[in-house]
Specification:
Elements lengths: L5 E5 L4 H17 L2 E9 L9 H26 L6 E8 L1 H12 L3 E6 L5 H6 L2 H8 L4 E5 L7
Parallel strand pairs: 1-2, 1-4, 2-3, 4-5
């Protein structure tokens, strides 16, 4: 029998991530699992200096804004059905998703994917593809529904 104690749902606040959140919440509810919602702030945020006390304040402000957004989408998409533990990391998305999955012993990662391969993804690899090939647990990839369909 499959044991799902912890489900990690990374989000970049896109529609693809929204679909993954719905699937992750449904699975967490069905299996009585803890759900972790993660957003990774890219290491080099354009136009934001990360050095000195001003840079530290900008990072803290950004993290507070992201945490607020995570709570908002959790409330909007999951509601009161189950508790959602929000997490924020800074760095390369795939690396941070994998790090957290290992660190907390995640049983399943549920994440969105665009469902197509553009040239840069073929050459560099996408976050979803990197996570899929390197995760310490199963990865459930969710493609968003085609435009105009539920």
């Amino acid at each position: 029998m499959m044991n799902l104690g912890k489900i990690l749902v990374p989000t970049d606040f896109s529609g693809y991530s929204d679909q993954a959140l719905l699937w992750g919440a449904s699975l967490a509810e069905r299996y009585g699992a803890q759900m972790l919602l993660l957003h990774v702030i890219p290491q080099a945020v354009e136009g934001v200096s990360m050095h000195g006390s001003e840079g530290e304040q900008r990072i803290m402000d950004l993290e507070a804004k992201v945490e607020e957004q995570l709570h908002e989408i959790a409330l909007e998409d999951v509601g009161e059905r189950l508790p959602v533990d929000v997490k924020i990391a800074m760095g390369k998305p795939a690396e941070e998703i994998l790090r957290l999955a290992r660190e907390v012993g995640v049983d399943l990662i549920v994440m969105g994917t665009h469902g197509h391969r553009e040239l840069h993804q073929l050459l560099l690899g996408s976050t979803a593809e990197t996570v899929f090939h390197n995760a310490p647990c199963p990865v459930f990839m969710v493609r968003a529904a085609a435009e105009g369909t539920p």
